[in-house]
Design goal:
The complex is a heterodimer of chains A (about 425) and B (about 1050). With about 425 residues, chain A is an alpha/beta fold. Chain A contains eleven helices and 17 strands. In chain A, strands 4-3-2-1-13-14 form a six-stranded mixed beta sheet, covered by helices on one side. In chain A, α2 runs parallel beside α3. Chain A starts with a strand and ends with a helix. In chain A, β15, α5 and β16 form a beta-alpha-beta unit. Chain B has about 1050 residues and is of the alpha/beta class. Among the domains of chain B are: about 140 residues, no CATH class; about 60 residues, no CATH class; about 210 residues; about 60 residues. In chain B, about 70% of the residues lie in helices and about 5% in strands. A six-stranded antiparallel beta sheet of chain B has the order 2-1-4-5-6-7. A five-stranded parallel beta sheet of chain B has the order 8-12-13-3-14, with helices on both faces. The two termini of chain B are about 25 Å apart. The chains are: A alpha/beta (about 425), B alpha/beta (about 1050). Chains A and B meet through α1, α3, α9, α10 and α11 of A and α3, α5, α6, α7 and α8 of B.
């Protein structure tokens, strides 16, 4: 077998919007709105530049079962460019773009293999009898709760075989458990390379026999998808040994930036320190546009200022005035103030005053499941609100959430009362 | 714990000061405003809990030096003593805690010693001032929160709770509609609705795609139909187009077959024939013209020239021509000039006549009109005039001198009369002598008056003196005066005696009487002495008599002198003595005489002056007469000189200079006229000479031309000249023409030869053409040419028809035959009917296709729009943003809600565990402070407010109490909170600042007793600036320790 090169991508989520307070940045709206499309373009460019033999897309090409018309059209255009370059494309669908979702009557170019609801196999190169084989299948519908790996047949021996699937490996991925399977299932499948999709954080679960890879989504869309995002360039040598190289293709990068206020005296110090940190971060991102969430932590005199109404918003505006302009903008989506007063919590806890009572009570409640359940009940009025709950489903309140709220409440009260007491 | 001493190293305006030792119980610290009470309170808080870390909190910098900070000596309840020291340093300052045994403890240890009471608790519970008291009024509704805040160091807790509630309800409220969550949900519903709308894009796109395919198919079908119809139309159009040519072709073929054969007929024969004939005709005409021209030229070349002889006088004739206009002018001008000459000669003659019979042009010419002569005449005129003027001046001067002499004589007579009239006036020396006598008279009169007055005064004085005894009368008076003194002296002596005999009363009376007597005696004596000194005495009478006599004598002397002076003044010496009025009259007379003296001196001076003037007038007359005589002589000499000069200048004698000047003027005019005459004569002569010269130049050519001028006058001669000029011009023109004709003869001969050659050539070509056309004559040739042309035209038409038919049929070689076959089988009408029908069918199909194409454009445009439409993307982005907003709002609300719950639980625990004890303590204090008016206070179950119970059992809420009572209630609650706090932790000192000022004296006393009561539990330090407050505390606790800051 001659050596082969393919690009492994997944979870394109074309036409998927950014989440966060990015509506505050109308000047970048089109950049952010087109980010998933631009990233897809970058993948196509990468395939052509790297003279890849094939592009593998492991599901969730689109962001919803209703599939944006614009997304489908743009997707087809990219595939046509690959066709013109003689590069094949293998695609399967996942929970966000199952086969029963609407699809425009668009004709895929001849280079495209779109897997159906049952497993089938296609060679990467039809004219090479030793060419790698790609096995794959798509979700017939969104709710696929069964393990699909057993449906894959024993691969053809002597050939490098790739399994293309949108699946949730393991139980604790932080994603919906669609097509759940275990790593052992994959190990026993006989495949050489599992090109997976669904988990948005890239991960090489196993590097050999088989190689199991999540490339992650190539374009982060919210702060929980921070950091470099991209695809894997996989080279398979004559002996069938794969070599992986990650390539960042995201066009706009999300980042979480933390800054401790311990050494900062005033707002100017804060702005200067944040600007330095952000310029470093933008350099690290290769000069890409940045959307970031700034987390302020630590203890210090600046804490009191941060607690003032409108102060954080001013800082955010000033940072955006400084950095959110031009093509390589760095836009502050939000500032989280997790700073503490210049006081030790244990000292507070020991004090015979209100703050001591609060800290001690919070500690008691965190351990008191009955009390936590009561607090949950207080929160249900919103989190199970008839109209709001469908949007707050990600925030289904459990006791851990209540504990987090308790800590935040403690911090909030200490801020308020520490200030009110004139300490 | 109690504070024993404060050591201030540097804090505010305190530097190196020590306060204390403070007692264990109640301590009163007195100080006026600005004395430093607040500074000490801040110092205490700072040393115990640290310097404030925030900007805006007062630091009380060490204004008077020293380290910023200091130390406090503290004594715990268990008896242990510590010194807490804090000076400014990093963070909250550098802190050290020293135990009495010298050990140094850390700050954490100190916090434990403070019972972990925070600064807030210390500040809110253990220190308070007047400003803190109204808090209960503002926040009375939430008493629990207030009590908790006060007790636990967060007095603003109710506000914080309120703010948290507000923030939470702004984010979400179950029944609210304007909170953030509701707003986000509303917007989300709009966006979702929009997304549902744009979701139809899919169906729209799919149907558009289907329609696009259907349109393509139908367009394909219609296209084929249109193409087929097009082909049929094309075929019919071809037939229609070919029909005319095809039918004409057949007619042409028939006509050609019936025509005479003209093969070989020269191409373009007719025009060539006409050209050849034209060339022959032209050549013949040219030959004829050449022959005629030659003949004319030869005739002209031989033609004789008239007056050819004049050609030899060409130069002379030309001069005559040039001078012709001038001589004409001269002939015209000459009579005028001669008439003009006659006129001015007459004028000259008249002028000469006016000058005199002996004047002619020659004399005029010789007469000197030079400037020198005129100047000489002028000088003579002036000289004579000057002499005559001098003569007239001298005559006037003589007249004036004569008149002046007469005037002087008259004045001299008058002056003499004046002098004569004043000849009797006194002299100035007489006047001065009389003036001296008058001055002496006045002085003497004064002396006389003074002496008489003095004598009179002295006599009056003498009459005022007592007569005879005036010197002795005072002596018995002085003696009588000494009597009371003596008696007094005796009485004094008696008194002393009586005193010695111890008869005191007697002695006293005698002594007093004696003293009075002595005193009267002394006074009387002294008066007597003063009277003796004031009396004139006899000597004075005698002295006055002497003086009177002297005065009388002086008056007599003065009288005598006066009479002498009167006599000298010419008066009557024996008459009454002159008084001042008389003397004044004499002075007035003297003044009048003095005026006459002045007048006489003036008259004398006038006479002298008149005499001198008379003399001067006589001398002046003599001088004038002499000058007059000299003037006469000079005038006569000048007139004689003038006459001599006239003779020398040959000017008629007897002329005055002015007349001589007039003569010169007239001579000048005549001379100018003579000059004009001479000029005119010269001009007439010149004209005559010019005419004569011209006539002379005419003679030679005239003679050659055979013209006799011997009897011709000048005008006739000039006319002959004109004739000669004309003849000469004609002869010259004829000569030129003949020369040109001779030159033309050769030229015309060459032209004639050329024309002959062209004629020959043309005739030869014409003949050749006729032969080529098979004709013998030109007419025959033309007939054959017409036939040939008709044939040629028909063949050309046939060719064009054939060509068009072939073009219609195209390159297919069989097509023409097929077309002709088709045409053979149809008619033009049938073709046109088919064509109309087919075109209608094509139009219909085309119209349909256009409609479909338009629709196809719309479909593609719509597909393209949907392809590029970002509305859905934008809506999704908006939805994502709103979900984020909702998420953030929910998180914030969750934290606030849990915070509220957390606070609620904390407070509930306090209220269950500690608040009842606080209220119980407070109830006791309240009863004490109100003097038993209020029995107790309690918190109703489940309510957050307090109720107070009156001594008669009635209940009131705090709002129903007066302000003072509410403040007492608050103070009681404070006491309760402090008391309760001291039960659970280290008892910190209570420090209060001016809390009694709103209380009436009675309640203030009871409040002070409350403090004293509290002081039994813990140390209480009271700051005040009011003496009455100090007194109240003194009364409440007689052994009160008082420390003054002043």
């Amino acid at each position: 077998m001659r050596s082969y090169r393919f690009i492994h991508a997944a979870d394109l989520h074309l036409d998927s919007p950014f989440r966060g307070m990015v509506e505050d940045a109308p000047q970048f709206a089109s950049t952010l709105r087109d980010a998933t499309f631009d990233t897809y373009e970058a993948i196509i460019e990468l395939c052509i530049a790297e003279r890849a033999d094939a592009l593998l897309v492991a599901g969730d090409i689109y962001d919803g079962a209703d599939r944006s018309l614009r997304a489908q059209l743009r997707f087809i255009e990219g595939l046509r460019r690959l066709d013109e370059a003689g590069i094949r494309a293998f695609i399967c669908h996942g929970n966000h773009d199952p086969l029963d979702g609407w699809e425009a009557q668009l004709t895929f170019p001849g280079n495209v293999v779109q897997f159906g609801s049952s497993v089938s196999a296609e060679p990467v190169n039809t004219s090479d009898p030793g060419s790698p084989l790609v096995y794959g299948m798509s979700y017939p519908t969104r709710e696929v709760r069964e393990n699909l790996v057993p449906l894959f047949p024993q691969p053809e021996p002597g050939r490098f075989c790739i399994g293309l699937l949108h699946a949730n490996v393991g139980a604790n991925t932080g994603h919906e458990p669609y097509a759940p399977c275990s790593l052992a299932d994959l190990e026993q499948s006989g495949m050489d390379y599992w090109a997976l999709g669904h988990v948005h954080t890239r991960a090489v679960l196993r590097d050999r026999h088989p190689t199991v890879v999540y490339p992650g989504n190539p374009q982060g869309r919210h702060v929980n998808e921070a950091g470099a995002r991209g695809v894997y360039v996989v080279d398979v040598d004559g002996q069938g040994a794969p070599r992986l190289e990650f390539r960042a293709v995201d066009r706009v990068r999300w980042e979480r930036v933390s800054l401790a206020i311990d050494e900062l005296e005033n707002e100017q110090d804060l702005l200067d320190a944040a600007e330095r940190r952000l310029l470093e971060t933008r350099d690290d991102a290769g000069g890409r546009p940045l959307v970031y969430r700034l987390r302020l932590d630590g203890r210090g005199a600046l804490h009191a200022s941060l607690s003032r109404d409108g102060f954080l918003r001013d800082v955010q505006d000033q940072l955006n005035d400084r950095l959110a302009n031009g093509n390589a903008f760095a836009f502050c989506e939000r500032i989280d103030d997790e700073t503490s007063p210049d006081v030790d919590r244990e000292e507070l806890r020991a004090s015979q005053d209100l703050l001591g009572d609060i800290v001690r009570m919070a500690d008691d409640l965190v351990e008191d499941e009955e009390a936590l359940e009561e607090l949950r009940g207080e929160l249900r009025v919103l989190f199970e609100h008839q109209r709001a709950r469908r949007y707050l489903s990600d925030r289904a309140v459990d006791q851990d959430d209540v504990r987090a709220f308790l800590r935040e409440a403690e911090r909030l009260l200490v801020d308020e009362l520490y200030d009110a007491g004139g300490r | 714990m109690r504070i024993e001493r404060l050591h201030v190293e540097g804090f505010g305006h305190y530097s190196d000061r020590e306060f204390g030792e403070f007692d264990k119980g109640l301590v009163l610290v007195r100080g006026d405003n600005e004395a430093g009470k607040s500074t000490l309170l801040a110092f205490t808080r700072t040393v115990l809990f640290g310097f404030p870390t925030r900007l805006g909190h007062k630091h009380y910098p060490a204004l008077r030096g020293g380290r910023h900070g200091g130390s406090i000596d503290l004594r715990l309840d268990d008896g242990r003593g510590f010194r807490a020291e804090r000076v400014e340093g990093k963070g909250r300052g550098h802190f050290q805690l020293f135990a009495e045994d010298g050990n140094v403890l850390n700050e954490e240890r100190f916090k434990a010693l403070l019972g972990n009471n925070s600064e807030q608790v210390f500040t809110s519970a253990f220190t308070f001032d007047l400003d803190d008291l109204p808090t209960i009024e503002e926040d009375g509704a939430d008493l629990g929160g207030l009590l908790y805040g006060v007790s636990m160091g967060a007095e603003r807790l109710p506000q914080v709770v309120k703010r948290i509630d507000e923030q939470a309800s702004q984010i979400f409220a179950p029944r609210g509609r304007t909170h953030r969550v509701a707003q986000a949900l509303s917007k989300l519903e709009v966006v979702e609705s929009h997304l549902r709308e744009v979701a139809d894009q899919a169906d729209q796109y799919r149907s558009l795609q289907q329609r696009q395919a259907d349109l393509a198919a139908e367009l394909g079908r219609i296209g084929e139909t249109v193409r087929q119809l097009g082909r049929q139309v094309q075929e019919r159009e071809r037939q229609q187009a070919a029909w005319k040519d095809w039918t004409q072709l057949r007619v042409l073929d028939e006509r050609l077959a019936s025509m005479e054969d003209t093969a070989g007929f020269p191409e373009d024969g007719l025009s060539r024939l006409e050209r050849a004939e034209e060339q022959a005709r032209t050549a013949q005409l040219e030959l004829d013209d050449a022959q005629r021209d030659l003949e004319e030229a030869e005739a002209a070349a031989d033609k004789p020239v008239d007056h050819a002889v004049l050609l030899q006088h060409a130069e002379g004739i030309e001069r005559l021509r040039r001078g012709r206009d001038a001589v004409e002018a001269s002939l015209r001008d000459l009579p005028k000039r001669q008439a003009e000459l006659d006129g001015i000669e007459r004028e000259l003659e008249k002028l000469l006549g006016e000058l005199g019979s002996d004047w002619d042009e020659e004399r005029l010419g010789a007469f000197d009109l030079s400037i020198r002569r005129r100047d000489a005449i002028e000088q003579w005129r002036k000289r004579i005039e000057d002499r005559r003027q001098a003569e007239r001046d001298a005559e006037r001067e003589v007249t004036r001198a004569r008149e002046a002499g007469e005037e002087a004589a008259r004045a001299q007579g008058e002056a003499a009369e004046n002098a004569e009239a004043l000849a009797d006036a006194p002299t100035r020396a007489d006047i001065e002598a009389r003036r001296d006598l008058l001055r002496q008279t006045r002085r003497t009169r004064q002396k006389y008056d003074v002496a008489n007055q003095r004598a009179h005064d002295l006599e009056a004085q003498q009459r005022g003196l007592p007569a005879g005894d005036t010197g002795e009368a005072a002596a018995p008076d002085r003696r009588m005066a000494a009597l009371p003194g003596v008696i007094g002296a005796l009485l004094l002596v008696g008194s002393m005696v009586a005193a010695g005999a111890e008869e005191m009363a007697v002695a006293l009376v005698l002594g007093v009487a004696g003293a009075v007597g002595v005193t009267v005696g002394i006074v009387t004596w002294m008066n007597g002495q003063r009277a003796a000194v004031a009396s004139p005495g006899v000597e004075e009478g005698r002295r006055l008599d002497g003086l009177i006599a002297e005065a009388r004598e002086a008056a007599g002397n003065a009288e005598q002198e006066l009479r002498t002076l009167v006599a000298r003044l010419g008066g009557d010496a024996q008459a009454t003595l002159p008084d001042d009025a008389a003397i004044d009259g004499m002075e007035a007379a003297l003044e009048r005489d003095r005026d006459r003296v002045d007048e006489r001196e003036q008259a004398d001076n006038g006479l002298r002056e008149a005499n001198r003037a008379l003399e001067r007038a006589g001398a002046k007359l003599e001088d004038a007469e002499r000058v007059l005589q000299e003037a006469h002589t000079a005038t006569s000499e000048a007139e004689q000189g003038w006459e001599a000069w006239l003779v020398s200048e040959r000017i008629p004698a007897g002329l005055a200079p002015d007349t001589a000047m007039q003569l010169i003027g007239r001579v000048e005019v005549a001379k100018a006229k003579a000059h004009e005459v001479a000029q005119t004569r010269n001009r007439v002569r010149a004209i005559e000479e010019d005419i004569a010269a011209y006539c002379e130049r005419v003679r030679a050519p005239a003679r050659e031309a055979g013209i006799d001028l011997s009897h011709a006058d000048q005008q006739a001669t000039v006319e002959v000249a004109d004739r000669l000029i004309r003849d000469f011009d004609a002869a010259r023109e004829q000569h030129r023409e003949r020369e040109e004709a001779r030159a033309r003869v050769a030229e015309r001969m060459r032209a004639q030869e050329g024309a002959e050659q062209r004629l020959t050539t043309a005739r030869r070509e014409l003949q050749g053409l006729l032969e080529a056309g098979g004709a013998e004559t030109a007419e025959d040739f033309r007939r054959r040419a017409a036939v040939h042309q008709d044939r040629h035209d028909l063949e050309a038409q046939r060719h064009e028809c054939d060509l068009r038919l072939r073009q219609i049929c195209g390159p297919d070689p069989d097509a023409l035959a097929e077309l002709e076959e088709a045409l053979e089988a149809t008619s033009l009408e049938a073709i046109e009917e088919d064509l109309e029908r087919l075109r209608e069918e094509v139009d219909a199909a085309t119209e349909r296709r256009e409609a479909l194409l338009t629709e196809q454009g719309h479909v593609e445009s719509e597909l393209s729009r949907l392809h590029d439409d970002t509305t859905a993307s934008q809506a999704r982005a908006e939805r994502a943003a709103l979900v984020s907003e909702l998420d953030a709002a929910a998180a914030e609300w969750g934290s606030l809600t849990v915070a509220r719950q957390l606070l609620r639980r904390v407070r509930e625990r306090y209220e269950q565990e500690r608040q009842p004890a606080v209220i119980q303590h407070a109830s006791e204090f309240f009863r004490t402070i109100t003097g038993g008016r209020y029995e107790r206070l309690f918190q109703p179950l489940g309510e957050s407010t307090l109720t107070v119970v009156d001594h008669d059992g009635s209940q009131k809420t705090p709002e129903e109490l007066s302000r003072g009572t509410r403040e007492q209630l608050y103070l009681a609650l404070r006491f309760g909170a402090v008391t309760e706090a001291t039960r659970h932790t280290e008892r910190l000192p209570v420090i209060v600042d001016e809390v009694l000022v709103n209380f009436d004296p009675d309640r203030a006393l009871r409040a002070a007793e409350g403090f004293a009561q509290l002081a039994q539990e813990t140390q209480v330090i009271v700051f005040t600036c009011h003496p009455w407050v100090a007194e109240v505390f003194q009364e409440a606790q007689p052994n009160l320790q008082t420390i003054s800051l002043d």
